[in-house]
Design brief:
Ferritin-like; Ferritin; DUF2383 domain-containing protein; 149 residues; mainly alpha; elongated
Length: 149
């Protein structure tokens, strides 16, 4: 089935959200600050709920089936992150990567919001955009807090 632009954008967002959840899971194993771990865990759980809603509504409303994950790209990004952490201070790197991914997700969510989707999808996109913006602000706060540590 060929996807139109709006379906392709939503499919790309869903795939990137899955990747972000994998990255959060990895980060939880690497971070040694309980406040950051607690925040990441809460964000991951809430994001998972939003993703499930988005996937379900995309399937029901748009007949959009999930794409297979690009495991090679995910593996490469994971390995690259680990290699960088060997030569750089891990926490600033981890926070920088999290912030960059949040920015990319915000941009992709905004792109999706420019299309006309059924109301249930539009509502979830609005919630997702708010969540991502809040999470980016929290990551920036952590970056400032742990900059001098």
């Amino acid at each position: 089935m060929l996807l139109d632009e709006s379906q392709a954008a939503l499919s790309e967002l869903i795939e990137m959200l899955h990747e972000s959840l994998d990255d959060y899971q990895d980060n939880l194993q690497r971070v040694h600050h309980s406040d950051i771990a607690e925040e990441f865990n809460g964000a991951m759980n809430y994001r998972n709920q939003l993703l499930n809603q988005l996937e379900e509504n995309a399937r029901l409303e748009l007949r959009l089936l999930p794409r297979a994950a690009d495991t090679e790209r995910e593996d490469f990004n994971h390995l690259w992150s680990k290699l960088k952490s060997l030569v750089m201070d891990e926490l600033p790197l981890l926070l920088r990567e999290r912030a960059e991914q949040e920015r990319q997700l915000i941009a992709l969510t905004a792109r999706c919001q420019s299309y006309d989707y059924p109301e249930v999808i539009t509502q979830t996109l609005t919630e997702l955009h708010q969540h991502l913006s809040k999470q980016l602000a929290q990551i920036k706060q952590f970056q400032n807090q742990y900059r001098t540590v």
